[in-house]
Write a structure and sequence with these properties.
- The protein has one domain.
- The protein is mostly helical and 64 residues long.
- It contains 3 helices and no strands.
């Protein structure tokens, strides 16, 4: 299932270039999260948590 692949790709977003990060987050939020909510809600929850963790860390780093 593609959601599993997206979860894996979003586990370590910080190691990617900013353009790749933006695209992965956009794709996840636009396509995979809405579709996955019906099929794999637990996986989608993990994906959302990965993205939120990345965004939180990014904001903390930017504020330093």
């Amino acid at each position: 299932m593609k959601v599993t692949d997206v979860i894996h790709n979003c586990q370590d977003l910080a190691s990617l270039k900013e353009a790749s990060i933006d695209k992965k987050i956009y794709d996840a939020e636009t396509f995979y999260i809405p579709l996955g909510r019906e099929v794999a809600p637990l996986m989608v929850r993990e994906l959302i948590e990965n993205i939120e963790n990345y965004k939180t860390k990014s904001r903390l780093m930017a504020s330093r």
